[in-house]
Specification:
mainly beta; 3-stranded antiparallel beta sheet; 4-stranded antiparallel beta sheet
Length: 120
């Protein structure tokens, strides 16, 4: 939780990456469970919870590219998907990590990309 800086739940994923679908299960420590599906989901995610909104940065760790969605714990639905501008490099040429944070009530999505192989 971004406000309290403590763990209040866990997210597990199960993907069918050939069909580009990722299923998410959220288990909150207080007992509430949530399930949702992202079409065109990728294997890696970074999450940030603020109030009842779960922000999801979904990305592939061996190539460029990412997606950003917001899931409402109240309505139990994805309430928006953002357009993410990014470099589109070839598959398996880059290592990719995406993080989420808040700064002055603004959501920041940061990507770190670097070449996997370096020749000397």
């Amino acid at each position: 939780d971004e406000t309290d800086k403590e763990v209040i739940g866990f997210v597990s994923t199960k993907g069918n990456y050939e069909n580009k679908i990722t299923k998410f299960h959220i288990n909150m420590i207080e007992g509430e469970d949530y399930d949702f599906t992202l079409r065109y989901g990728m294997e890696h995610c970074n999450f940030l919870l603020k109030d009842s909104l779960l922000y999801i940065a979904n990305y592939n760790n061996i190539s460029s590219g990412s997606a950003l969605q917001c899931y409402s714990l109240k309505s139990k639905k994805i309430i928006w998907t953002a357009k993410v501008l990014q470099i589109n490099a070839g598959h398996s040429k880059y290592s990719n990590k995406v993080t989420l944070s808040l700064y002055k009530n603004k959501l920041l999505m940061e990507g770190e990309e670097w070449p996997l192989f370096t020749s000397f």
